[in-house]
Automatic annotation (TrEMBL):
Protein name: Carbohydrate kinase PfkB domain-containing protein
A molecular function (GO) term: kinase activity
SUPFAM superfamilies the record matches: Ribokinase-like
Domain Carbohydrate kinase PfkB, first and last residues per copy: 182-275
UniProt KW keywords: Kinase, Transferase
Length: 300
């Protein structure tokens, strides 16, 4: 049976987890493309964990969303093209190119029946939804993964990091923010600006776990050891989804961070959404093991 938040939802709401953001086509070396974007990974992860997931996105008509996102309710907005990225590697250095950009998503694009979802995840990939949209969801837990608000690109499509302008105002109605050190390109000022703009911020640090910022305190939650990383794609989105879902259930920030660390660690041990664990597997691991937590001060 799928888990849901029936007690918190309006009777007309038939979803638990709403993701807003454009899917992407990620170009492969052979000229093919692979489905990407926070919207896709997070909606699939929520569904995999037993929740009723929905996605509002733009995609061209040639993207078979019903096949690629099984079990996810999708509201496809029209677009001549899907947002498309190409990554070019030179050793460990990556240059990212934006090859096509789908139009923005506004609050008016969201089906009225979904506007009372108990959890709303703003998941921009390339500046397609305004963070101020959060004001329209006063009764929801509103989480965000700001990667797409931290990207800009030049006239040729070369992507570069650009800090979010006035984060305190832009993120005023967001409850929890999850992002990685890579998202801010190691920019400490940008990191602190984001962290200080929201009640709860979690910074993922790969195999070093995550840093949790809340209530004027900072904690490091260590990661579950991973013997072999098979596919890290989407791990950050799995983490964010698991964190938002678990926090909505228990309202315990550190419990949610532990849960999310374990979820993401299982996800990288396989390929695709099938590697995302269900809640029972995560809880079973946590019942037998523990993830150390330590309070830190150097990040403030």
């Amino acid at each position: 049976m799928a888990a849901h938040f029936g007690g918190r939802s309006s009777p007309r709401v038939n979803i638990d987890y709403l993701v807003i953001g454009n899917i992407t086509k990620d170009m492969q070396p052979d000229g093919s493309w692979r489905l990407g974007g926070t919207g896709a990974y997070s909606a699939l992860a929520a569904r995999r964990m037993g929740y009723r997931a929905a996605l509002v996105t733009r995609a061209d008509e040639n993207v078979p969303l019903e096949t690629l996102l099984p079990g996810v309710q999708v509201h496809r907005l029209p677009a001549d093209v899907s947002t498309t990225f190409e990554n070019i590697y030179n050793g460990n250095a990556r240059t990212q190119w934006l090859k096509a950009w789908a139009p923005p998503i506004s609050f008016e694009d969201i089906p009225p029946a979904w506007r009372d979802a108990p959890i709303v995840h703003l998941g921009p990939i390339a500046q397609e939804c305004d963070p101020r949209m959060a004001v329209h969801f006063p009764n929801a837990l509103v989480g965000a993964t700001p990667q797409g608000w931290l990207r800009a690109w030049d006239d040729e499509g070369r992507v570069f990091f650009r800090p979010l302008a006035n984060p305190a105002e832009a993120l005023a109605h967001i409850d929890a923010l999850v992002f990685s050190l890579e998202d801010v390109q190691g920019n400490r000022n940008a990191l602190h600006a984001l962290v200080n703009a929201v009640p709860i911020a979690v910074v993922t640090c790969a195999d070093e776990g995550c840093l949790v910022f809340a209530e004027g305190e900072t904690w490091r939650v260590h990661a579950r050891p991973v013997a072999h990383v098979v596919d890290p794609t989407g791990a950050g989105d799995v983490f964010a989804t698991a964190f938002f879902l678990r926090y909505a259930e228990c309202r315990d920030i550190l419990d949610a961070a532990r849960f999310a660390n374990v979820a993401a660690s299982f996800a990288v041990e396989g390929v695709g959404v099938e590697a995302v664990p269900n809640r029972e597997r995560i809880h079973a691991w946590l019942a037998e093991q523990t993830l150390p937590i330590e309070q830190v001060v150097e990040w403030r």
